[in-house]
Amino acid sequence: MSQLDAYYEVVLSLVQEAGAVIRDKINRPKDIMTKSCDIDLVTESDQQVEKLLIDGLSSKFADHKFIGEESSSPGEKIELTDAPTWIIDPIDGTMNFVHGLPHTCVSIGLLIDKVPEIGIVYNPILEQLFTARRGQGAFLNNSPIHVSNQKELSKALIMLEMGTSKDPEKMKIVMENLHVLTPQVHGLRALGSAALDMCMVALGGADGHFEFGIHAWDIAAGDLIVREAGGICIDPAGGPLDLMSRRVLCAATTELAQELAKSLIQYYPERD
Ligand code: 2AM
Ligand code: CA
Ligand code: CA
Ligand code: CA
């Protein structure tokens, strides 16, 4: 068994445990706390799941590093090094989790030398396990998945998110992009989880996704899953994707990615 096989086996079993916590708690009363504003929520379960994953991985792999949403302080400078680093969003779609909307997931990616090697996104409510390892394809519940072959924006279904910020400038950009894109596409969808949006593109159920303001933990797993499913992940202005830039665009094809990039009103959030 290779070292990466061992990492994969351990993380997969921890992700199942994390999923069981989310499944158990989603329909129970929760302690809900706020972070940057009154729609930026966190629950005990977000913290519990992140601890479960970090404790479980660090006990097996003492030299690995972690970047996790709930263990990062707001505004903290997040540094990605060449060390094996697990990038963790314990619950992506916290707002959905709080309301009991079954579209929420654990998202975890492993980067070594800054190269994504493992990506796992698990929705334990709908039992959807998306997995990818570099060079080995992408899977939903162990069956191979592939992006659509859509090249035209006018026929595309695009996933986007409203985000959880009440910053007026950010809200204005969201509204402007809705205004600009609605007449140009087949449809726009916002389901409340950036990681699952990317998996929907990987699955071929949607053709593209973009978001401004996301963090590395929202997209580290989804990036590998989309690319291993044959899709494209780039910066929303058209250059290479930078996981730390707080910007992402993914699409089924290069043609669609470029067309979507050209149509978007760009926004450059402050970097971490
Ligand atoms: P979360 O549930 O882990 O907080 C909801 O709009 C989606 O955007 C979720 O995936 C949510 O992740 C993510 N998100 C959270 N904060 C955000 C922000 N400031 N900007 C953009 N997306 C954000
Ligand atoms: Ca959050
Ligand atoms: Ca998230
Ligand atoms: Ca989260």
UniProtKB/TrEMBL annotation:
Protein name per UniProt: Inositol-1-monophosphatase
Identify the Pfam families for this entry: Inositol_P
Does Phosphoprotein show up as a keyword for this record? no
Its lineage reads: Eukaryota, Metazoa, Ecdysozoa, Arthropoda, Hexapoda
Q: Please give the cofactor(s) recorded in the UniProt entry for this protein.
A: Mg(2+)
Q: Please provide, alphabetically and separated by semicolons, the GO molecular function terms listed in this UniProt record.
A: inositol monophosphate 1-phosphatase activity; metal ion binding
Species assigned in the record:
Cephus cinctus (Wheat stem sawfly)
Family (UniProt): Belongs to the inositol monophosphatase superfamily.
**What catalytic activity does the UniProt entry give for this protein?**
a myo-inositol phosphate + H2O = myo-inositol + phosphate
Keyword field: Hydrolase, Magnesium, Metal-binding
Question: Biological process (GO) annotations?
Answer: inositol metabolic process; phosphatidylinositol phosphate biosynthetic process; signal transduction
**Which Gene3D superfamilies does the record associate with it?**
3.40.190.80, Fructose-1,6-Bisphosphatase, subunit A, domain 1
The Enzyme Commission number assigned here is 3.1.3.25
Under the heading SUPFAM superfamilies, the entry gives:
Carbohydrate phosphatase
Pathway given in the UniProt record = Polyol metabolism; myo-inositol biosynthesis; myo-inositol from D-glucose 6-phosphate: step 2/2
Q: Where does Mg(2+) bind?
A: 69, 89, 91-92, 218
Quote the gene name from the UniProt entry.
Answer: LOC107273409
